[in-house]
Specification:
alpha/beta; eight-stranded parallel sheet; single chain; 8 strands; 16 helices; 360 residues
């Protein structure tokens, strides 16, 4: 049995961290669903930048939209919504079968809005309405300014994927924003079931400290951070306020393990996937990691609900001079800047292709 099926049977959702028009049109995404237990999909500006840069599949669409007078960001979001609504339709049977637990796709608001609460909320509402798919999550970064937008979006009934979370504290803050939105819906007599996941980025921790720690501590920090966060997740799931919300029809906000592709060429290509096996969670992985997992015949032991050895491991990093809290804030800021850079590159590519294809 494929390891992808083993993870699925454990109760973890496997989502693909990629979208291109090519994998929609050549049947690859459908094959991943049918053969590799893929039950959802995530996207971000970097993914779309690579997709449009490395393929001619978007050229006809760009040419048509240019002829209609569209350009820049508006043109891009039309392309992205076209791709993601097609993907959402592929996953819709899973969404229906699981009563909205699984079968989601994700579209991110412009990363230029990461520190603008009002504009983030407005963009989330607009994108969700334009896509018109119930199984589309809007990605909002879990920055300080993003948290109020998350609460308001959930209150408005918009499903949210909270992105750019790097620590237990950031995850809990996002989960609390989600629950505030749910409790406001309960108080207003509205349906309390609004989908959400909280995306904790893992491998970037190890990439950030690789040159600063001894070999014995290589590739262990991200997993320890995830274990610490998972303990908090399990505590939230079982807490009185959350259980009260369940009684009104709410669902837990599942943790989503993001950035799970191995960065270190000396480490296992499924290092983070095996280490983060856990029921009622999501692992979104790049295509290469998904294929590598399919070639393996086993998965790791499930994440311990009590965090296992995470505090002991994190203490070793502290002794090695790593400021965990400071690094979490730094990684979130760098992540937001990275998406902004990818966004600018994406807009440059959209504009250059628009100019070339428009002339054609």
């Amino acid at each position: 049995m494929k390891a992808t099926q083993l993870l699925h049977d454990l109760g973890q959702s496997l989502w693909l961290d990629n979208i291109t028009r090519d994998i929609l049109e050549n049947g690859t995404l459908k094959r991943y669903i049918d053969e590799l237990s893929v039950t959802g999909l995530t996207s971000n500006p970097t993914i779309f930048d690579h997709a449009i840069k490395n393929s001619t599949a978007y050229d006809a669409g760009i040419r048509k939209k240019v002829s209609e007078g569209k350009s820049g960001e508006a043109l891009f979001f039309e392309l992205a919504i076209e791709d993601l609504t097609r993907a959402a339709d592929l996953f819709r049977p899973i969404w229906d079968r699981t009563n909205g637990v699984d079968g989601w796709v994700s579209l991110e608001v412009s990363p230029l809005l990461a520190y603008d609460t009002a504009s983030t909320l407005a963009a989330a509402k607009s994108l969700h309405a334009r896509a018109a798919r119930p199984n589309l999550l809007i990605k909002i970064p879990g920055t300080r300014e993003g948290l109020p937008a998350i609460e308001e979006a959930i209150f408005a009934g918009i499903p949210i994927n909270v992105t750019l979370l790097f620590s237990r504290e950031q995850y809990v803050a996002a989960a609390e924003a989600y629950m505030r939105g749910i409790n406001r819906r309960i108080a207003a007599g509205l349906n309390a079931q609004v989908g959400s996941v909280g995306s904790l980025f893992v491998s970037r921790w190890d990439a950030a400290v690789a040159a600063r720690v001894p070999d014995a501590l290589k590739n262990r920090l991200g997993i320890a951070i995830a274990k610490r966060a998972y303990k908090a997740v399990r505590e939230l799931f079982g807490s009185t306020p959350w259980q009260r919300a369940y009684n009104f029809g709410a669902r837990p906000q599942r943790p989503l393990w993001a950035s799970t592709g191995t960065k270190d060429p000396k480490a296992s290509d499924v290092l983070y996937v095996k280490a983060l096996a856990s029921p009622f969670s999501v692992n979104t992985m790049p295509e290469g990691t998904l294929k590598a997992l399919a070639d393996h015949g086993q998965i790791g032991e499930p994440l311990p609900a009590d965090g296992g050895d995470c505090e002991e491991v994190l203490a070793q990093y502290g002794k090695a001079g790593i400021d965990i809290d400071g690094l979490a804030a730094q990684l979130q800021e760098e992540g937001a800047k990275s998406f902004v850079n990818s966004w600018h590159e994406l807009m440059d590519k959209i504009n250059s292709k628009s100019a070339a294809l428009g002339k054609g």
